[in-house]
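seq:
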Amino acid sequence: MFSAASILLIAGINLCSVRIFGRTESWLAGVKVVAIVAFILLGAAAMVGLLPLHDGSAAPFFSELTADGWFPHGLPIVFTTMLAVDFAYSGTELIGVTAGEAQNPRQAVPRAIRAALWRLVVFFLGAITVIAALIPYREAGVVESPFVTVLQRIGVPYAADVMNLVILTAILSAANSGLYASTRMLWSLAQQGMVPRFLGVTTGRGVPVRATLVSLVGGLLTLLSSVLAPGSVYLVLVSISGLAVMLVWVAICACQLVFRCRYLAAGGRLEDLPYRTPGYPVVPVLALVLTAASCVLIVLDPEQRPALFWTVPFVAICYLTWFLVGRARRRAETGSGEAGEAAVG
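struct:
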């Protein structure tokens, strides 16, 4: 019931104007930012001894990071965790999705890219460093949030309740962004004729209401599957969504490489691009190779292997649908053209 109420709340936000969505997302993200900054500052103080640990142990500094070597379980374990690590960075692709609704995308998009990069570096790497320094890897687990574990070791009161509130806020933020991206993708597909065109209708405020409602139905059905079929249908949906995000990033890297080549071939100048990828072509090539490797190397992990088995057929069906729809459209256009010529003749 709580999840259903959250879905309806997020749907209401997305059915309003883009301005309301942006403000809501800003507030939700603000809660996460404040919590992560406070966590990093408290954790760093405990690392160097400015805050005593609750169990009375000495300040670890960075000793736990290398106490058992860089790869205590061997190098292959790195590849089996890369999909989860990469998935944690998903969501930044929304910068491109929202470009179409930005008032001044030539300025807003490059600014958003640079801000997102620095925030990811500081917040993600900073939090991970604190967690790895204060929790020996043998004690780390998935039963309790590592953020809660660290705060409890420092002696922060009500640590579990505070972090649960922050985590719920983060989940709402992720769902809010996910619904926004889903509706805009449906709208874009409707404009291209890949899905029924009625999904491309927008209100006077530019909100694709029909696409939002269809996405909402999908979210409610997914919620239902988590109750009725958690070990089958729900697991398949989770597997597809996780790996699909990484396939999207593979496509983004490939598109970035192709775009630069075609842009220059068409006579474009690099000086006219509002944002140029640093380190091109090394950065996009590395991103493409490493992201693709993350998608393939999960075959080494028996628990994540089903994601590959389910996602490959799913993507194949999507491409088959795209091919069939495109062929039918070309036939229809050819038929209408021939009929027009016959009428003129």
